[in-house]
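name: query_chain
kind: protein
chains: 1
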Amino acid sequence: MIPAVFFDRDGVLIESSVRHGRPYPPRTRADVRLDADALAGVRALRAAGFALAVVTNQPDVARNSVTAESVHGINERTGQLLGIPPDLFFTCFHDDADACGCRKPAPGLIRRAARHCGADLSRSAVIGDRWRDIGAAHRAGCAAVWIDRGYAERRPDAPYGRAGSLAEAVEFVLAAHRERPAGGPH
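structure:
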Protein backbone atom coordinates (compact mmCIF):
# COMPACT_ATOMS: atom_id res chain seq x y z
CA MET A 1 0.00 0.00 0.00
CA ILE A 2 1.20 3.48 -0.84
CA PRO A 3 0.91 6.89 0.79
CA ALA A 4 -1.63 9.30 -0.62
CA VAL A 5 -2.59 12.94 -0.40
CA PHE A 6 -6.29 13.70 -0.39
CA PHE A 7 -6.92 17.29 -1.45
CA ASP A 8 -9.97 19.34 -0.76
CA ARG A 9 -10.95 21.06 -4.01
CA ASP A 10 -12.24 24.58 -3.34
CA GLY A 11 -9.81 26.91 -1.60
CA VAL A 12 -7.03 24.34 -2.00
CA LEU A 13 -6.57 23.26 -5.62
CA ILE A 14 -8.83 25.93 -7.08
CA GLU A 15 -9.62 29.41 -5.88
CA SER A 16 -12.75 30.16 -3.89
CA SER A 17 -14.50 33.50 -3.82
CA VAL A 18 -14.43 34.87 -0.29
CA ARG A 19 -17.32 37.08 0.78
CA HIS A 20 -17.78 38.31 4.34
CA GLY A 21 -15.04 35.91 5.45
CA ARG A 22 -16.70 32.82 3.97
CA PRO A 23 -15.45 30.85 0.95
CA TYR A 24 -17.71 30.01 -2.00
CA PRO A 25 -16.91 27.57 -4.82
CA PRO A 26 -16.94 28.42 -8.51
CA ARG A 27 -20.37 28.00 -10.10
CA THR A 28 -19.30 26.71 -13.55
CA ARG A 29 -16.30 25.09 -15.19
CA ALA A 30 -15.52 28.43 -16.86
CA ASP A 31 -15.06 29.94 -13.37
CA VAL A 32 -12.29 27.49 -12.40
CA ARG A 33 -9.02 29.21 -11.48
CA LEU A 34 -6.20 27.05 -10.22
CA ASP A 35 -4.46 28.00 -7.02
CA ALA A 36 -1.06 29.43 -7.99
CA ASP A 37 0.70 26.48 -6.30
CA ALA A 38 -1.58 23.67 -7.48
CA LEU A 39 0.25 22.36 -10.53
CA ALA A 40 3.70 22.43 -8.90
CA GLY A 41 2.29 20.81 -5.76
CA VAL A 42 0.62 17.98 -7.66
CA ARG A 43 3.81 17.35 -9.63
CA ALA A 44 6.02 17.34 -6.50
CA LEU A 45 3.78 14.90 -4.65
CA ARG A 46 3.55 12.58 -7.66
CA ALA A 47 7.34 12.64 -8.02
CA ALA A 48 7.65 11.64 -4.36
CA GLY A 49 5.44 8.59 -4.96
CA PHE A 50 2.13 9.73 -3.50
CA ALA A 51 -1.21 8.67 -4.91
CA LEU A 52 -3.45 11.72 -5.31
CA ALA A 53 -7.21 12.15 -5.00
CA VAL A 54 -9.67 14.98 -4.50
CA VAL A 55 -12.33 14.75 -1.79
CA THR A 56 -14.91 17.54 -1.89
CA ASN A 57 -18.15 18.48 -0.16
CA GLN A 58 -20.62 20.11 -2.55
CA PRO A 59 -23.77 20.70 -0.47
CA ASP A 60 -25.05 23.36 -2.86
CA VAL A 61 -26.46 20.47 -4.91
CA ALA A 62 -28.66 19.40 -1.97
CA ARG A 63 -29.55 23.07 -1.45
CA ASN A 64 -30.65 23.32 -5.11
CA SER A 65 -28.37 26.27 -5.85
CA VAL A 66 -26.13 24.37 -8.30
CA THR A 67 -26.56 21.18 -10.32
CA ALA A 68 -24.59 17.99 -9.98
CA GLU A 69 -23.71 18.38 -13.66
CA SER A 70 -22.09 21.75 -12.93
CA VAL A 71 -20.06 20.23 -10.07
CA HIS A 72 -18.94 17.38 -12.33
CA GLY A 73 -17.93 19.95 -14.96
CA ILE A 74 -15.85 21.84 -12.38
CA ASN A 75 -14.24 18.58 -11.26
CA GLU A 76 -13.52 17.66 -14.87
CA ARG A 77 -11.96 21.04 -15.64
CA THR A 78 -9.86 20.95 -12.47
CA GLY A 79 -8.68 17.47 -13.38
CA GLN A 80 -7.79 18.52 -16.92
CA LEU A 81 -5.70 21.42 -15.66
CA LEU A 82 -3.88 19.28 -13.08
CA GLY A 83 -3.69 15.94 -14.86
CA ILE A 84 -5.91 14.23 -12.29
CA PRO A 85 -8.28 11.66 -13.87
CA PRO A 86 -12.05 11.97 -13.21
CA ASP A 87 -12.14 8.72 -11.22
CA LEU A 88 -9.92 10.37 -8.58
CA PHE A 89 -12.56 12.97 -7.68
CA PHE A 90 -14.80 11.88 -4.80
CA THR A 91 -17.75 14.19 -4.23
CA CYS A 92 -20.41 14.40 -1.52
CA PHE A 93 -23.57 16.19 -2.65
CA HIS A 94 -25.29 15.99 0.75
CA ASP A 95 -25.98 18.66 3.33
CA ASP A 96 -25.66 18.27 7.11
CA ALA A 97 -29.32 17.27 7.53
CA ASP A 98 -28.69 14.17 5.38
CA ALA A 99 -26.33 12.78 8.05
CA CYS A 100 -24.41 10.78 5.47
CA GLY A 101 -21.08 9.09 6.02
CA CYS A 102 -19.40 10.87 3.12
CA ARG A 103 -19.90 14.53 4.06
CA LYS A 104 -16.77 15.78 5.73
CA PRO A 105 -15.99 15.75 8.65
CA ALA A 106 -17.19 12.15 8.24
CA PRO A 107 -14.40 9.99 6.78
CA GLY A 108 -16.38 8.23 4.03
CA LEU A 109 -14.94 10.09 1.01
CA ILE A 110 -11.38 9.63 2.24
CA ARG A 111 -11.86 5.94 2.94
CA ARG A 112 -13.43 5.39 -0.48
CA ALA A 113 -10.59 7.29 -2.18
CA ALA A 114 -8.01 5.30 -0.22
CA ARG A 115 -9.53 1.98 -1.30
CA HIS A 116 -9.61 3.16 -4.91
CA CYS A 117 -5.94 4.25 -4.79
CA GLY A 118 -4.65 1.34 -2.72
CA ALA A 119 -3.50 3.87 -0.13
CA ASP A 120 -2.36 3.26 3.42
CA LEU A 121 -4.31 5.81 5.46
CA SER A 122 -1.72 5.78 8.24
CA ARG A 123 0.88 7.00 5.73
CA SER A 124 -1.43 9.50 4.04
CA ALA A 125 -2.46 13.12 4.54
CA VAL A 126 -5.38 15.41 3.86
CA ILE A 127 -4.75 18.98 2.72
CA GLY A 128 -7.72 21.23 3.36
CA ASP A 129 -8.72 24.79 4.13
CA ARG A 130 -11.67 24.20 6.47
CA TRP A 131 -12.32 22.51 9.78
CA ARG A 132 -14.36 19.78 8.08
CA ASP A 133 -11.34 18.66 6.05
CA ILE A 134 -9.19 18.34 9.15
CA GLY A 135 -11.93 16.54 11.07
CA ALA A 136 -12.32 14.03 8.24
CA ALA A 137 -8.56 13.43 8.25
CA HIS A 138 -8.64 12.71 11.98
CA ARG A 139 -11.56 10.30 11.63
CA ALA A 140 -9.90 8.49 8.71
CA GLY A 141 -6.57 8.11 10.52
CA CYS A 142 -4.60 10.45 8.25
CA ALA A 143 -2.26 13.31 8.95
CA ALA A 144 -3.85 16.71 8.35
CA VAL A 145 -2.49 19.95 6.93
CA TRP A 146 -4.70 23.01 7.28
CA ILE A 147 -4.22 25.90 4.88
CA ASP A 148 -5.23 28.91 6.94
CA ARG A 149 -6.97 31.21 4.47
CA GLY A 150 -8.18 33.53 7.24
CA TYR A 151 -11.86 32.60 6.92
CA ALA A 152 -14.25 33.96 9.53
CA GLU A 153 -15.38 30.53 10.68
CA ARG A 154 -14.59 27.73 13.07
CA ARG A 155 -10.97 26.69 13.28
CA PRO A 156 -10.11 23.00 13.00
CA ASP A 157 -9.39 20.81 15.99
CA ALA A 158 -5.73 19.93 16.55
CA PRO A 159 -3.54 18.19 15.59
CA TYR A 160 -2.68 19.50 12.18
CA GLY A 161 0.15 21.12 10.31
CA ARG A 162 -0.66 24.74 9.60
CA ALA A 163 0.26 26.35 6.29
CA GLY A 164 -0.32 29.73 4.72
CA SER A 165 -0.40 28.39 1.17
CA LEU A 166 -0.73 25.20 -0.81
CA ALA A 167 3.02 25.28 -1.48
CA GLU A 168 3.69 25.30 2.28
CA ALA A 169 1.18 22.49 2.81
CA VAL A 170 2.83 20.33 0.16
CA GLU A 171 6.27 20.99 1.66
CA PHE A 172 4.93 20.02 5.08
CA VAL A 173 3.72 16.67 3.68
CA LEU A 174 6.97 16.07 1.79
CA ALA A 175 9.11 16.88 4.84
CA ALA A 176 7.08 14.52 7.04
CA HIS A 177 7.40 11.82 4.37
CA ARG A 178 11.18 12.24 4.17
CA GLU A 179 11.51 12.03 7.97
CA ARG A 180 9.34 8.95 8.34
CA PRO A 181 11.01 5.60 7.75
CA ALA A 182 9.14 3.36 5.28
CA GLY A 183 6.63 1.28 7.17
CA GLY A 184 7.27 3.16 10.43
CA PRO A 185 4.64 4.89 12.55
CA HIS A 186 3.02 8.04 11.25
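note: The domain at 4-119+141-179 is CATH 3.40.50.1000 (Rossmann fold).
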